[in-house]
TrEMBL record:
Organism: Conexivisphaera calida
InterPro entries in UniProt: NA-bd_OB-fold (IPR012340), RNA_pol_Rpb7-like_N_sf (IPR036898), RNAP_E/RPC8 (IPR004519), RNApol_Rpo7 (IPR046399), Rpb7-like (IPR045113), Rpb7-like_N (IPR005576), S1_domain (IPR003029)
Reaction catalysis annotation: RNA(n) + a ribonucleoside 5'-triphosphate = RNA(n+1) + diphosphate
Function according to Swiss-Prot or TrEMBL: DNA-dependent RNA polymerase (RNAP) catalyzes the transcription of DNA into RNA using the four ribonucleoside triphosphates as substrates.
Keywords: Cytoplasm, DNA-directed RNA polymerase, Nucleotidyltransferase, Transcription, Transferase
Enzyme class: transferase
Highest taxon of source: Archaea
Entry protein name: DNA-directed RNA polymerase subunit Rpo7
Lineage, highest ranks first: Archaea, Nitrososphaerota, Conexivisphaeria, Conexivisphaerales, Conexivisphaeraceae
The keyword Protein biosynthesis belongs to this UniProt entry's keyword annotation: no
Gene: rpo7
């Protein structure tokens, strides 16, 4: 889930940036510190925006920098357990597929693709259902439910697992077929009655 969060911090403005506009210097330093990092409480921090800097800073003896209190907003992506998201398959492996959801890749393990018996065809770069012929490969758009989230610190995200083994989940083409099948009995009743 994407969201905007408000944060407060103290930013260090190094001596070489003291001639710059204070807001611009603070925004650059905050972006360097926060952008593209993972935080267990916030999620994946994508971008820092709307920086407000206290114009009165502090100088620390022995350090040529100035420290300012700042308030800012950050655009974050935090994958929530049981959330249904859409993404694109970016890689097929022996053990499943990686699906890009927001700025991150989640693992769709082969056991979580569908109830069908599946094989991985590495030459085609696809996972194929033996009984149904359903297939996913690189570029396939899928709807999945987030089943595992383990957040790391710093630049790494430990683990995000997803499943498509439920009705109306999987490749978008599969979902369209399920919807058509579900509507057929209702349409037949409408014709009769």
């Amino acid at each position: 889930m994407f969201q905007l969060v408000e944060l407060e911090d103290v930013v260090r403005i190094p001596p070489q940036m003291l001639g710059m506009d204070l807001s611009k210097a603070a925004a650059e330093e905050l972006s360097r510190k926060y952008s593209s990092t993972a935080n267990p409480e916030l999620g994946y921090i994508i971008r820092v925006i709307d920086v407000e800097v206290d114009p009165v800073g502090r100088i620390v003896h022995g350090d040529g920098a100035v420290y300012h209190k700042v308030r800012f907003r950050a655009l974050v992506f935090y994958p929530k357990l049981q959330e249904v998201v859409e993404g694109e398959v970016v890689e097929i492996t022996d053990f499943g597929a990686f699906v890009r959801i927001g700025p991150l890749d989640a693992l769709l393990h082969i056991s979580q693709v569908t109830d069908d018996y599946l094989t991985v065809d590495m030459r085609q770069g696809a996972i194929v259902g033996k009984g149904t012929g359903k297939m996913i490969k690189g570029g396939t758009r899928v709807r999945v439910r987030i089943s595992v989230v383990s957040m790391g610190r710093g630049m790494r995200m430990d683990k995000i697992g997803v499943t498509s083994r439920q009705p109306f989940l999987g490749a978008l083409e599969w979902i369209d077929e399920e919807i058509k099948k579900a509507r057929q009995p209702a349409q037949a009743k409408a014709k009769q009655g």
